[in-house]
Amino acid sequence: LDAHLAPYVGENGELMGIVAVLHDITDIRRLEKMRSEFIANVSHELKTPITSVKGFTETLLDGAMEDKEALTHFLGIIHKESDRLHRLINDILHLSKIEQHSIPLDIEPLNVAEVVDRVADTVRKEVAKKELELILPENREIWMEGQKDRIQQIILNLVSNAIAYTPAGGEVAVTLAEREDSVAITVKDTGIGIAKKDLPRLFERFYRVDKGRSRNSGGTGLGLAIVKHLVESHHGKIEVESEEGIGTAFTVILPKKQ
Ligand code: ADP
Questions:
Q1: Which atom of ligand 1 lies nearest, measured to the CA of 192?
Q2: In the chain, at which end, N or C, are there fewer CB atoms within 10 A of the end residue's CB?
Q3: How does residue 253 score in pLDDT terms, banded at 50, 70 and 90?
Q4: ipTM over 0.95
Protein backbone atom coordinates (compact mmCIF):
# COMPACT_ATOMS: atom_id res chain seq x y z
CA LEU A 1 0.00 0.00 0.00
CA ASP A 2 1.28 3.45 -0.90
CA ALA A 3 0.00 6.25 1.38
CA HIS A 4 0.07 10.01 0.84
CA LEU A 5 -0.93 12.21 3.76
CA ALA A 6 -1.89 15.88 3.45
CA PRO A 7 -3.20 18.30 6.09
CA TYR A 8 -6.70 19.57 5.52
CA VAL A 9 -6.68 23.22 6.56
CA GLY A 10 -9.74 25.35 7.36
CA GLU A 11 -10.49 28.96 6.25
CA ASN A 12 -8.47 30.48 9.10
CA GLY A 13 -5.54 28.18 8.69
CA GLU A 14 -6.57 25.84 11.46
CA LEU A 15 -5.95 22.14 11.03
CA MET A 16 -9.28 20.47 10.33
CA GLY A 17 -7.98 16.99 9.62
CA ILE A 18 -5.72 14.85 7.53
CA VAL A 19 -6.48 13.65 4.02
CA ALA A 20 -5.05 10.25 3.34
CA VAL A 21 -4.75 8.93 -0.20
CA LEU A 22 -4.13 5.23 -0.33
CA HIS A 23 -3.02 3.44 -3.48
CA ASP A 24 -2.90 -0.29 -3.80
CA ILE A 25 0.47 -0.79 -5.44
CA THR A 26 0.70 -4.56 -5.12
CA ASP A 27 0.06 -4.84 -8.89
CA ILE A 28 2.78 -2.33 -9.72
CA ARG A 29 5.22 -4.09 -7.38
CA ARG A 30 4.38 -7.43 -8.93
CA LEU A 31 4.96 -6.09 -12.43
CA GLU A 32 8.26 -4.57 -11.39
CA LYS A 33 9.31 -7.85 -9.82
CA MET A 34 8.34 -9.77 -12.97
CA ARG A 35 10.25 -7.32 -15.12
CA SER A 36 13.43 -7.55 -13.08
CA GLU A 37 13.18 -11.33 -12.92
CA PHE A 38 12.80 -11.39 -16.69
CA ILE A 39 15.89 -9.27 -17.18
CA ALA A 40 17.86 -11.47 -14.79
CA ASN A 41 16.70 -14.56 -16.71
CA VAL A 42 17.53 -13.03 -20.09
CA SER A 43 21.00 -12.04 -18.94
CA HIS A 44 21.65 -15.51 -17.61
CA GLU A 45 20.37 -17.16 -20.77
CA LEU A 46 22.51 -14.94 -22.99
CA LYS A 47 25.58 -15.43 -20.82
CA THR A 48 25.69 -19.20 -21.19
CA PRO A 49 26.25 -19.38 -24.97
CA ILE A 50 28.49 -16.31 -25.00
CA THR A 51 30.76 -17.81 -22.31
CA SER A 52 31.00 -20.97 -24.34
CA VAL A 53 31.81 -19.16 -27.63
CA LYS A 54 34.40 -17.05 -25.83
CA GLY A 55 36.02 -20.03 -24.12
CA PHE A 56 36.30 -22.15 -27.26
CA THR A 57 37.65 -19.34 -29.45
CA GLU A 58 40.27 -18.60 -26.79
CA THR A 59 41.30 -22.24 -26.66
CA LEU A 60 41.59 -22.29 -30.46
CA LEU A 61 43.65 -19.09 -30.53
CA ASP A 62 45.88 -20.52 -27.80
CA GLY A 63 47.01 -23.26 -30.14
CA ALA A 64 44.26 -25.88 -30.32
CA MET A 65 43.78 -24.74 -33.92
CA GLU A 66 46.83 -26.79 -34.96
CA ASP A 67 44.90 -29.95 -34.16
CA LYS A 68 42.55 -30.43 -37.11
CA GLU A 69 40.16 -32.65 -35.17
CA ALA A 70 39.88 -30.24 -32.24
CA LEU A 71 39.39 -27.39 -34.67
CA THR A 72 36.41 -29.06 -36.33
CA HIS A 73 34.93 -30.10 -33.00
CA PHE A 74 35.27 -26.65 -31.39
CA LEU A 75 33.99 -24.82 -34.46
CA GLY A 76 30.97 -27.11 -34.38
CA ILE A 77 30.25 -26.09 -30.79
CA ILE A 78 30.78 -22.40 -31.55
CA HIS A 79 28.38 -22.66 -34.47
CA LYS A 80 25.74 -24.41 -32.34
CA GLU A 81 26.04 -21.88 -29.53
CA SER A 82 25.82 -18.85 -31.83
CA ASP A 83 22.77 -20.47 -33.38
CA ARG A 84 21.20 -20.70 -29.92
CA LEU A 85 22.06 -17.08 -29.26
CA HIS A 86 20.42 -16.09 -32.50
CA ARG A 87 17.26 -18.02 -31.67
CA LEU A 88 17.18 -16.65 -28.15
CA ILE A 89 17.41 -13.04 -29.32
CA ASN A 90 14.75 -13.64 -31.96
CA ASP A 91 12.41 -15.19 -29.38
CA ILE A 92 12.95 -12.36 -26.90
CA LEU A 93 12.26 -9.71 -29.54
CA HIS A 94 9.25 -11.64 -30.77
CA LEU A 95 7.84 -11.97 -27.25
CA SER A 96 8.29 -8.30 -26.43
CA LYS A 97 6.61 -7.37 -29.72
CA ILE A 98 3.53 -9.51 -29.16
CA GLU A 99 3.29 -8.34 -25.57
CA GLN A 100 2.62 -4.83 -26.80
CA HIS A 101 -1.12 -5.19 -26.95
CA SER A 102 -1.38 -1.95 -28.86
CA ILE A 103 -0.35 -3.68 -32.08
CA PRO A 104 -3.60 -4.82 -33.69
CA LEU A 105 -3.90 -8.20 -35.40
CA ASP A 106 -3.60 -8.22 -39.16
CA ILE A 107 -6.64 -10.38 -39.73
CA GLU A 108 -7.41 -12.31 -42.88
CA PRO A 109 -9.39 -15.44 -43.75
CA LEU A 110 -7.14 -18.50 -43.64
CA ASN A 111 -7.36 -22.23 -44.19
CA VAL A 112 -5.88 -23.87 -41.06
CA ALA A 113 -5.16 -27.12 -42.93
CA GLU A 114 -2.97 -25.19 -45.34
CA VAL A 115 -1.11 -23.51 -42.47
CA VAL A 116 -0.45 -26.95 -40.94
CA ASP A 117 0.98 -28.10 -44.31
CA ARG A 118 3.36 -25.18 -44.30
CA VAL A 119 4.55 -26.09 -40.81
CA ALA A 120 5.02 -29.69 -41.95
CA ASP A 121 7.27 -28.47 -44.78
CA THR A 122 9.38 -26.53 -42.28
CA VAL A 123 9.98 -29.51 -39.98
CA ARG A 124 10.19 -32.31 -42.57
CA LYS A 125 13.98 -32.58 -42.35
CA GLU A 126 14.04 -32.78 -38.54
CA VAL A 127 11.25 -35.39 -38.57
CA ALA A 128 13.23 -37.56 -41.00
CA LYS A 129 16.45 -37.12 -39.02
CA LYS A 130 14.80 -38.36 -35.82
CA GLU A 131 12.92 -41.09 -37.66
CA LEU A 132 9.58 -39.87 -36.38
CA GLU A 133 6.25 -40.24 -38.03
CA LEU A 134 4.41 -36.99 -38.65
CA ILE A 135 0.69 -37.51 -39.07
CA LEU A 136 -1.20 -34.65 -40.71
CA PRO A 137 -4.89 -33.80 -40.37
CA GLU A 138 -7.40 -35.46 -42.69
CA ASN A 139 -9.47 -32.28 -43.04
CA ARG A 140 -8.26 -30.36 -46.06
CA GLU A 141 -10.21 -27.19 -45.48
CA ILE A 142 -11.18 -25.36 -42.31
CA TRP A 143 -11.54 -21.63 -42.63
CA MET A 144 -11.15 -19.09 -39.86
CA GLU A 145 -10.08 -15.50 -39.31
CA GLY A 146 -6.68 -14.72 -37.91
CA GLN A 147 -3.19 -13.46 -38.55
CA LYS A 148 -1.66 -16.20 -40.68
CA ASP A 149 1.97 -15.87 -39.56
CA ARG A 150 0.90 -15.93 -35.89
CA ILE A 151 -1.26 -19.03 -36.32
CA GLN A 152 1.63 -20.67 -38.17
CA GLN A 153 4.01 -19.76 -35.31
CA ILE A 154 1.63 -21.32 -32.74
CA ILE A 155 1.50 -24.61 -34.64
CA LEU A 156 5.24 -24.54 -35.42
CA ASN A 157 6.23 -24.07 -31.78
CA LEU A 158 3.97 -26.91 -30.61
CA VAL A 159 5.13 -29.26 -33.38
CA SER A 160 8.80 -28.36 -32.77
CA ASN A 161 8.39 -29.20 -29.08
CA ALA A 162 6.63 -32.46 -29.91
CA ILE A 163 9.59 -33.38 -32.15
CA ALA A 164 12.17 -32.29 -29.56
CA TYR A 165 10.62 -34.21 -26.67
CA THR A 166 9.77 -37.43 -28.52
CA PRO A 167 12.42 -40.15 -28.79
CA ALA A 168 13.34 -41.58 -32.19
CA GLY A 169 10.74 -43.84 -33.74
CA GLY A 170 7.85 -42.00 -32.09
CA GLU A 171 4.82 -40.27 -33.51
CA VAL A 172 3.69 -36.66 -33.78
CA ALA A 173 0.11 -36.09 -34.91
CA VAL A 174 -1.67 -32.86 -35.77
CA THR A 175 -5.46 -33.04 -35.85
CA LEU A 176 -8.06 -30.39 -36.58
CA ALA A 177 -11.61 -30.29 -35.33
CA GLU A 178 -14.19 -27.83 -36.55
CA ARG A 179 -16.89 -26.68 -34.15
CA GLU A 180 -19.68 -24.22 -34.76
CA ASP A 181 -17.79 -21.10 -33.68
CA SER A 182 -14.28 -22.39 -33.17
CA VAL A 183 -11.45 -24.51 -34.47
CA ALA A 184 -9.47 -26.92 -32.28
CA ILE A 185 -5.89 -27.68 -33.25
CA THR A 186 -4.30 -30.60 -31.40
CA VAL A 187 -0.63 -31.53 -31.46
CA LYS A 188 -0.09 -34.92 -29.86
CA ASP A 189 3.14 -36.82 -29.37
CA THR A 190 4.29 -40.16 -28.00
CA GLY A 191 7.15 -38.49 -26.14
CA ILE A 192 8.53 -38.24 -22.62
CA GLY A 193 5.47 -36.48 -21.22
CA ILE A 194 5.30 -33.85 -18.46
CA ALA A 195 4.82 -34.42 -14.73
CA LYS A 196 1.57 -33.11 -13.21
CA LYS A 197 3.44 -30.71 -10.93
CA ASP A 198 5.10 -28.99 -13.91
CA LEU A 199 1.93 -28.43 -15.93
CA PRO A 200 0.79 -25.18 -14.23
CA ARG A 201 4.14 -23.44 -14.87
CA LEU A 202 4.72 -24.64 -18.43
CA PHE A 203 3.71 -21.38 -20.11
CA GLU A 204 5.99 -19.17 -18.00
CA ARG A 205 8.95 -17.60 -19.72
CA PHE A 206 12.12 -19.68 -19.38
CA TYR A 207 10.35 -22.44 -17.49
CA ARG A 208 11.74 -25.83 -18.43
CA VAL A 209 11.09 -29.19 -16.88
CA ASP A 210 14.62 -30.32 -17.67
CA LYS A 211 17.09 -27.56 -18.41
CA GLY A 212 19.74 -29.85 -19.88
CA ARG A 213 17.36 -31.60 -22.22
CA SER A 214 15.83 -28.32 -23.37
CA ARG A 215 19.29 -26.86 -24.11
CA ASN A 216 20.39 -29.96 -25.96
CA SER A 217 17.37 -29.84 -28.18
CA GLY A 218 18.07 -26.18 -28.89
CA GLY A 219 15.21 -24.88 -26.71
CA THR A 220 15.07 -21.31 -25.46
CA GLY A 221 12.40 -21.84 -22.81
CA LEU A 222 10.28 -19.17 -24.51
CA GLY A 223 8.38 -21.26 -27.06
CA LEU A 224 5.28 -21.91 -24.98
CA ALA A 225 5.21 -18.38 -23.51
CA ILE A 226 5.09 -17.09 -27.10
CA VAL A 227 2.36 -19.61 -27.98
CA LYS A 228 0.23 -18.51 -25.03
CA HIS A 229 0.49 -14.85 -26.01
CA LEU A 230 -0.30 -15.56 -29.65
CA VAL A 231 -3.32 -17.67 -28.67
CA GLU A 232 -4.59 -14.98 -26.31
CA SER A 233 -4.11 -12.28 -28.94
CA HIS A 234 -6.64 -14.30 -31.00
CA HIS A 235 -9.00 -14.62 -27.99
CA GLY A 236 -8.41 -18.34 -27.85
CA LYS A 237 -7.25 -20.73 -25.17
CA ILE A 238 -4.74 -23.53 -24.82
CA GLU A 239 -5.02 -26.77 -22.88
CA VAL A 240 -2.52 -29.49 -22.16
CA GLU A 241 -2.85 -33.13 -21.24
CA SER A 242 0.15 -35.25 -20.51
CA GLU A 243 1.32 -38.48 -19.00
CA GLU A 244 4.95 -39.15 -18.19
CA GLY A 245 6.47 -41.74 -20.47
CA ILE A 246 3.34 -41.89 -22.61
CA GLY A 247 3.07 -38.53 -24.35
CA THR A 248 1.61 -35.06 -24.45
CA ALA A 249 -1.26 -33.35 -26.26
CA PHE A 250 -1.62 -29.58 -26.58
CA THR A 251 -4.97 -28.30 -27.84
CA VAL A 252 -5.46 -24.75 -29.04
CA ILE A 253 -9.01 -23.52 -29.40
CA LEU A 254 -9.44 -20.45 -31.57
CA PRO A 255 -12.66 -18.60 -32.40
CA LYS A 256 -13.48 -18.62 -36.11
CA LYS A 257 -14.36 -14.93 -36.09
CA GLN A 258 -12.25 -12.27 -34.44
P1 ADP B 1 11.86 -25.03 -24.67
O2 ADP B 1 12.50 -24.08 -25.58
O3 ADP B 1 12.69 -25.41 -23.49
O4 ADP B 1 11.28 -26.22 -25.37
P5 ADP B 1 9.12 -24.17 -24.23
O6 ADP B 1 8.59 -22.93 -23.65
O7 ADP B 1 8.76 -24.47 -25.65
O8 ADP B 1 10.66 -24.17 -24.01
O9 ADP B 1 8.63 -25.38 -23.33
C10 ADP B 1 8.82 -25.31 -21.93
C11 ADP B 1 9.11 -26.69 -21.35
O12 ADP B 1 7.94 -27.51 -21.46
C13 ADP B 1 10.20 -27.47 -22.09
O14 ADP B 1 11.48 -27.14 -21.61
C15 ADP B 1 9.83 -28.90 -21.78
O16 ADP B 1 10.34 -29.28 -20.52
C17 ADP B 1 8.31 -28.87 -21.68
N18 ADP B 1 7.63 -29.33 -22.93
C19 ADP B 1 7.09 -28.55 -23.89
N20 ADP B 1 6.52 -29.29 -24.86
C21 ADP B 1 6.68 -30.58 -24.49
C22 ADP B 1 6.30 -31.85 -25.06
N23 ADP B 1 5.63 -31.92 -26.23
N24 ADP B 1 6.65 -32.98 -24.39
C25 ADP B 1 7.32 -32.91 -23.22
N26 ADP B 1 7.71 -31.76 -22.63
C27 ADP B 1 7.40 -30.61 -23.25
A1: 25
A2: N
A3: very high
A4: yes
